[in-house]
Amino acid sequence: MPNQNGILYGLTILSPILNDERATPSHDLQIRAFLAALPTDETSPFARAPGTHLARLVVMDDVIYVGAPSCEEHLKSKYLVFESNCDGPLDTYLTNLARTVPEQLDALWSHCVGYPGAANLAAFLAYMKSCQLDTTFFFAAVNDRTLPQSLLALQTQHAVTRFVTDHQGEDPASLQRSFVNFAANLAKQPPPLAGSSAPPRAIKTGGHNE
Questions:
Q1: What percent of the chain has pLDDT over 70?
Q2: 158 and 65 in one domain?
Q3: DSSP label of 72
């Protein structure tokens, strides 16, 4: 099924960029400047928006001619390309984007033809869907877990690795006590922030921290 791999949704949106000779700098250059300044850590707007496993935004100037037997073709406009692997369904994800980061969405897509703004939710959803392409051959490395579940799994993997490393050679009785405390504390941990580059939290094991 296009766009879907397990519970994950593969979103591909191509929005034509305004071609206005009076705009200084041009609309595509304004988009590029905004994208260049976007943070890529947990403060990224797409990290703050719920359900974003991956997001990529680029400006596409034209298609490339790769030689025969293909035909040389060119685009009639430049496009803002938005790709995302996200927790579905699509309406829920787009609604969360519009409600969480409307200013950033407007700063980007206001340079695109026909963009109605994020404040008008119905028009926003209709616009984004009108610019959507089916994502065929969509592959997701983890396709049966939501973003919070995936982040928790990565946190657990890191914490267990540290526990095993730090408790090498410990006598069985002490090891059991440490692991019981470790498991109890690990279960209480919230998921890490999406996009965070900070090391995972230390997990207490009773006598010392992991």
A1: 92
A2: no
A3: P
